[in-house]
Specification:
The complex is a heterodimer of chains A (152) and B (673).
Chain A (H helix, E strand, L loop, with lengths): L2 H10 L4 H17 L7 H8 L18 E7 L3 H9 L7 E7 L5 E5 L2 E5 L1 H4 L2 E5 L9 H13 L2
Antiparallel strand pairs in A: 1-2, 1-5, 2-3, 3-4
Helix pairs in contact in A: 2-3, 2-6
Chain B lengths: L2 H8 L12 E7 L5 H9 L4 E4 L6 E9 L14 E7 L11 H11 L9 E7 L3 H12 L5 E6 L1 H6 L6 H7 L5 E3 L8 H14 L17 H7 L1 H15 L9 H9 L4 H45 L9 H19 L1 H17 L1 H15 L7 H7 L3 H6 L7 H10 L6 H15 L3 H25 L11 E3 L8 H35 L19 H9 L11 H12 L3 H9 L10 H6 L1 H14 L3 H14 L4 H11 L1 H26 L4
Helix pairs in contact in B: 4-9, 10-11, 11-12, 11-13, 12-20, 13-20, 18-19, 18-25, 18-26, 19-26, 20-21, 20-27, 21-22, 22-23, 25-26, 26-28, 27-28
């Protein structure tokens, strides 16, 4: 998905942009709580990318060394699932520890170091983590990011 | 999964050459966890590499002999057993995303007619436990006896998050866990004991996991439906083992600050590539000469002595020529490839084992992707410019088998140093002061041809090869261990030698035969033909020559040289001199040869065959040499790695491209040169 497509999506849902993104964020919150039971349906809606505000943070925008939390991807289903299997799931805490040439990123998540190419990094959505470094910190972080998005 | 019954009936089918009645043990694990080192450590030198049936994916097989000591249960039978070991390509999940991962999944689930394993050895990386445990959950849910081989425990300790095998086993509800280090071979005996035990007693299904249902969901549905449960289970196990926190900045991270730096990363990368290139050419050179001159000399002396035993004059006959110029020449030719191949295998293993190769692939990914190739394709192609053969050997670092074949088919277009000798002679013969420029342009053409052929292949035969997102778990940096390294290198070298030698030696014998059959009147006796034009070889060259008329070099000297070049490009210049009956001196450089008698002869000939446009014909000839089939050793290696069809296709493509280039070049350049 190019940047333009993402913007078009956002414009299409422009009027509901804020509302939709809160729904998406709440969906993200819900899925973490249901992570133990359901099959991640709300994660799928975030993954589909229809209700992402056009100024959502991507991995490309992440500042090195700061804590973030996974908020979904705009990758196709197959690759999104593989990313999950590699440990980058909804709500996982991560930080970018290295920027490489051509936009590549090295992500630290737990003890893993995952190298991701620039194009894919642009499709991974993140949110700033709250002060806590706990894996499911985004539940608290949601309130902050909702405020941020409200200003959009 | 209704294939269980099917697989049982097929289980009786012998799998390649393995012992049909031994227990089948399959090794599986994520990429870069040291699984192959472990596999080779357990099997010693007995691992055989072969293609998974119907694919170009490489699998290692071997028979392990268990002496039966150290079993835990008292009164256990300690009869020696033979087990069938299979190693698989690394995979992140039982839902595969590439042909290599598919082969791994089929091997471990017994799908697609493959034999069911009796036991699975799951290699887990102690420095990456959460992801490893997720994968282990999938494997355990297959319901087969499983043993966990825990690798990189020393590294985990250094990273201040040590993992205790016994504690992990307890947290897994009794699944046996053995700490191993494939590089030094520790833990192998304990692993063998655990395998023996597992084969007899099976493995308990941990609490929180559920065995895969035999009917109903497809593999894909099954893997996806329970992914959250499996991650939940993994984090519970982690908690029980006392882990789960973030690690701080590790030593590997600090090294990556430089090696993955946007600027320094590329600098280091180029230095490493240059070093590898130099090593496989310059460093290998003296060793190759040693084989070609010294060892050949010893052998010839020895052979002469043996023939001398049969009386004087015995060494003058054709049989002596067959042994020396045919058989010995073939063996020595194969031997001259040992230094560059050996060095390549050593460097590859070093780079792989220490962890740098993964970074190198990442550094080059974007640039290579723009060219339509995988980032890891850079190393094989760069090495190919030194010598195609080690370049082909380097393709094994590409994890996707389709990429391996694609790059393998492009490497022959890399102008190797043997081709350089031909470029130099012709450039100096026809372009004197501009010789350097001409040679440089040949290299530029080489790169252009690689890109264009790559583009065409990607849109035709390799259409399914879409650019995949580059997402890779970087292994921590490690110090490679010498013994494991040598073991791997030896087995790969041996594989090359046994695979390539038969073709090379037989072709050289065929050439010898052609050169030895006298067909013109006063040519000489069999095996002793004076002028090569009078032999069967000359006749063949004459027959082929007219084909090259549209390219301006329709002369038997040229076609004879090209036919010899099919065997080895280094010999082309020598063959050309021989066809003109010009004596070559050992210390003449190619430049001097081009400017000397050989150059004169070439200019005369090319002018004649091209109707006065000798230079245009020379360019056409150079382009033909650039692109037409690589040397025989390369073809043999292509066949060994990718099968006969790929080898023939590559030769065919090379001939077509070479001919097209040569004809187009001559027909256009004859108006200017």
């Amino acid at each position: 998905m190019t940047k333009d497509t993402r913007n078009n999506h956002a414009r299409g849902t422009g009027a509901n942009g804020t509302g939709a993104s809160s729904a998406g964020a709440n969906g993200a919150g819900a899925s973490s709580a249901d992570a133990n039971s359901a099959g991640g349906n709300s994660a799928a809606s975030v993954r589909a990318g229809t209700d992402i505000a056009h100024d959502a943070l991507t991995l490309r925008d992440a500042k090195t060394g700061e804590q973030y939390v996974m908020a979904g991807t705009t990758l196709d289903d197959r690759h999104a699932f593989r990313l999950e299997e590699m440990g980058l799931r909804q709500g996982t805490a991560l930080q970018v520890i290295q920027r490489t040439n051509f936009g590549g990123r090295v992500v630290a998540s737990g003890t893993q170091r995952i190298a991701i190419d620039g194009g894919t990094a642009r499709r991974i959505l993140i949110e700033p983590a709250s002060q806590m470094a706990a894996p499911y910190a985004h539940e608290r972080g949601n309130d902050q990011s909702n405020d941020q998005r409200g200003e959009a | 999964m209704g294939s269980a019954a099917e697989s049982d009936s097929k289980a009786a089918e012998p799998c390649c050459q393995c012992a049909g009645d031994g227990a089948r043990v399959v090794f599986i694990g994520n990429p870069n966890v040291g699984k192959s080192s472990l596999f080779n450590a357990m099997l010693g030198m007995h691992a055989k590499v072969m293609n998974a049936p119907g694919t170009t994916v490489l699998l290692e097989h071997g028979t392990y002999r268990y002496e039966g000591q150290g079993s835990q249960a008292a009164g256990q039978e300690t009869q020696p057993q033979e087990w069938d070991f299979t190693d698989t390509p690394g995979t992140y999940s039982l839902l595969p995303m590439s042909p290599d991962e598919e082969v791994a999944v089929e091997a471990v689930t017994g799908a697609n007619g493959r034999p069911q394993p009796d036991l699975i050895v799951a290699a887990l990386d102690a420095t990456n436990l959460s992801r490893s445990l997720y994968f282990l959950a999938q494997v355990l849910e297959l319901g087969k006896p499983t043993v966990v081989a825990l690798t990189m425990t020393d590294l985990a300790r250094k990273q201040k998050s040590p993992v205790d095998a016994a504690r992990l086993s307890k947290a897994l509800g009794g699944v046996p866990v053995v700490a191993v280090d494939g590089r030094v071979g520790s833990g192998c005996d304990a692993l063998a004991d655990a395998i023996a035990d597992g084969l007899v007693h099976g493995t308990p299904m941990p609490h929180g996991l559920a065995a895969q249902p035999t009917e109903g969901a497809t593999m894909k549905q099954w893997v996806r439906s329970r992914s959250d449960e499996r991650f939940e289970w993994a984090s519970q196990v982690l908690a029980r083992v006392g882990m789960g926190g973030n690690s701080g900045l590790t030593a590997s991270d600090r090294i990556d600050r430089v090696l993955l730096h946007p600027v320094w990363g590329i600098v280091v990368f180029l230095i490493v590539m240059f070093a590898v290139f130099q090593a496989t050419t310059t460093l290998a050179g003296p060793a190759q000469d040693w084989f070609d001159v010294t060892v050949r000399g010893w052998c010839e002396t020895g052979i002469d002595w043996v023939f001398g035993l049969f009386g004087p004059g015995a060494a003058d006959g054709w049989f002596h020529s067959l042994i020396v110029n045919g058989l010995l020449d073939g063996v020595i030719t194969v031997a001259t490839f040992i230094p560059p191949m050996g060095i390549m295998f050593i460097l590859l293993s070093l780079l792989e084992d220490c962890g740098y190769l993964a970074r190198a692939a990442f550094v080059m990914d974007r640039a290579m992707r723009a060219l339509g190739l995988d980032g890891r394709a850079f190393l094989p192609i760069v090495v190919g410019f030194g010598c195609n053969l080690p370049g082909l050997a380097a393709t094994r670092t590409l994890p996707d088998s389709r990429q391996r074949v694609l790059v393998g088919m492009l490497i022959p277009f890399a102008s190797c140093s043997a081709r350089l000798s031909v470029y130099l002679v012709l450039a100096y013969a026809f372009f004197e002061h501009y010789a350097g420029l001409v040679v440089f342009l040949m290299y530029v053409m080489s790169i252009i041809v690689i890109l264009l052929v790559g583009l065409v292949l990607k849109h035709t035969a390799f259409r399914s090869l879409a650019p995949e997102p580059f997402v890779m778990s970087l292994p921590p940096y490690q110090c490679p261990r010498a013994i494991a390294l040598l073991r791997t290198v030896w087995s790969r070298l041996w594989g090359f030698l046994t695979g390539a030698s038969s073709i090379i030696i037989s072709m050289i014998l065929v050439l010898w035969l052609l050169e030895g059959i006298p067909l013109a009147g006063a040519a000489g006796s069999f095996g002793n033909v004076e002028d090569v034009h009078d032999s069967a070889y000359g006749v063949v060259a004459d027959a082929v020559a007219p084909v090259f008329k549209p390219a301006g070099f329709g002369d038997w000297h040229a076609s004879a040289a090209l036919i010899t070049g099919f065997v080895a490009k280094e010999v082309v210049v020598g063959a050309m001199s021989q066809s003109y009956s010009i004596e070559q001196s050992d210390d003449e450089s190619e430049a001097q040869e081009g400017q000397g008698a050989l150059g004169v002869a070439l200019r005369e000939d090319f002018d004649k065959s091209s109707g006065g446009h000798g230079r245009a014909a020379a360019v056409a000839f150079l382009l033909f040499v650039l692109a037409y089939t690589p040397c025989l050793a390369t073809v043999a290696e292509l066949r060994r790695q990718f099968g006969g069809k790929v080898a023939i296709a590559t030769v065919g493509i090379g001939l077509v491209v070479a001919y097209a280039l040569a004809v187009m070049a001559f027909q256009t350049l004859k108006f200017v040169l």
